[in-house]
């Protein structure tokens, strides 16, 4: 029996339109492919099993503790999706912009900014032989340069569907408020965020500060956290278009209830989860660049300090805005939050 996951993957693929008629064929093609190793023998001339097949094999046999954790996360996501999402619109190609494609390995990675995405882009480039195979040798601007890694949005529906069916899809998520605090600090608070301060900071000051100084209006350099949150909750912000990717909700960037993700990695367990993905990708020797020791605890403390000063009214509304990310990825309500 193919598990429901594999069937859902084919369904998600079918949602992309133009392939509805192929649905039956896709379902039939997928199962025998796994059973007879047909995909395995055709993958890179049969030299290697694809990452998706490797995961499938892991799920069939006695599972390691880590494989079991990932199976449970997938199930939780699946359950949360059926419980909390109603009728959904069809995916459009631009919805796939964040899903990066590695054709050589058979990987799809949906990047969420502020969740080690620079390092993941580096790792994907290194897997393809850039930076002499050492991710740390690749400068950050190179990793982010447009077009370095193709996006799923660049392909035709048929090509998209083929990749969705046969590639291992993964994403990495993070506690939503910690991610938000990190985005604020990185893009609006610190001096290196000058471009973001001019683009968003000046807007926030003009719109929300009663008596702004000319300096603040011109530079947008001194936006307080409370002002940033008020901007996020301001109905005008969403009306102007999607939120910037650094503070947009992970589910709105990656559509985990419509695309099938095989691995849900977490920032909180980055090293183990990255090693799990790299093992599936057939590159267990590649070391995922590690954050400096203590960096995570410091980020958590900073988030807590920032949110503690926010009124319960704003805390509640903000939780409402990010609630789906909490639910889908099994994050509990932070202890410092006053929701009642
Ligand atoms: C969800 O979170 C709870 C509390 O942190 C944890 O005990 C549980 O194992 C998690 N479930 C999954 C599937 O990750």
From TrEMBL:
InterPro entries: Carb_sulfotrans_8-10, Sulfotransferase. It is a single-pass type II membrane protein. One of its GO terms (molecular function) is sulfotransferase activity. The keyword Signal applies. Residues 1-29 form the signal peptide. The keyword Calcium does not apply. Keywords: Carbohydrate metabolism, Glycoprotein, Golgi apparatus, Membrane, Signal, Signal-anchor, Transferase, Transmembrane, Transmembrane helix. Its EC number is 2.8.2.-. One of its GO terms (cellular component) is Golgi membrane. Its main location: Golgi. Pfam families: Sulfotransfer_2. It comes from the Eukaryota. It is found in: Golgi apparatus membrane. GO terms for biological process: carbohydrate biosynthetic process; proteoglycan biosynthetic process. PANTHER family: CARBOHYDRATE SULFOTRANSFERASE (PTHR12137), CARBOHYDRATE SULFOTRANSFERASE 13 (PTHR12137:SF60). Belongs to the sulfotransferase 2 family. This is Carbohydrate sulfotransferase. It comes from Bos indicus.
